[in-house]
Amino acid sequence: MAIERTFSIIKPDAVAKNHIGAIYNRFESAGLKIVAAKMVHLTKEQAEGFYAEHSERPFFGALVSFMTSGPIMVQVLEGENAVAANREIMGATNPAQAARGTLRADYADSIDENAVHGSDALASAEREIAYFFAADEICPRTR
Ligand code: RTP
Ligand code: MG
Q: Which Gene Ontology cellular component terms are annotated (predicted)?
């Protein structure tokens, strides 16, 4: 098993509903360590840049509008197979299809407002971490 880092967002809906602590508890209970974190309110330009791969999709405008609608928590999670482990904790993109006990099943209302983001591969994790964090903002655990 490889120790990986992945990038995670608690989206505006879940922050607004005061679910930050509950979601952090799920990460930590699963053995993922939070090695960087901050609250930010994205500008339109930041949201468009982050989701650039979806810029031609019909939902892009709604996605950018939602992601700029309020503050978000961004964090780096570290642990064994962190990318896949976090995607499993999150559940399917559409909460109606998300497995029981996943974050989206428990905290998301719709496919458009689905509580969390997680990197879908190691390469995107590296890119997304660098989009939000300088190297000296990430704190490796020594104990
Ligand atoms: P995310 O990037 O936010 O972690 O979500 P994901 O990988 O599960 O889904 P992705 O395909 O990357 O889509 C990004 C976000 O766009 C919205 N979406 N809407 N209406 C639709 O068909 C649709 N498809 C995607 C979702 O809010 C999704 O989280
Ligand atoms: Mg995605």
A: cytoplasm
pLDDT in tens, 52-110: 999 999 999 999 999 999 999 999 999 999 999 999 999 999 999 999 999 999 999 99
> No. of H helices and E strands in the chain?
7, 4
40 backbone φψ class: left, alpha, beta (φ>0; ψ -120 to 50): beta
CA neighbor of 123 nearest in space, from 3, 2, 7, 1: 7
What ipTM does the predicted assembly reach? 0.94
Residue 93 C-alpha to ligand 1 middle, in angstroms?
Answer: 6
Q: Of ligand 1's atoms, which has the minimum distance to the CA of residue 51? A: 14
The tokens for 139 are 């704190």
CA–CA gap between residue 108 and residue 98 (Å, rounded) = 10
Residue 105 backbone phi and psi in degrees, to 5 = -65, -40
User: In a 3-state reduction of DSSP, which class is residue 46?
Assistant: helix
Instruction: Domain 3-137: give its CATH architecture.
Output: 2-Layer Sandwich (3.30)
User: Ligand 2 mean position to 143 CA, how many Å?
Assistant: 32
| Largest distance between two CA atoms of the chain | 46
Average pLDDT over every residue of 15-34:
98
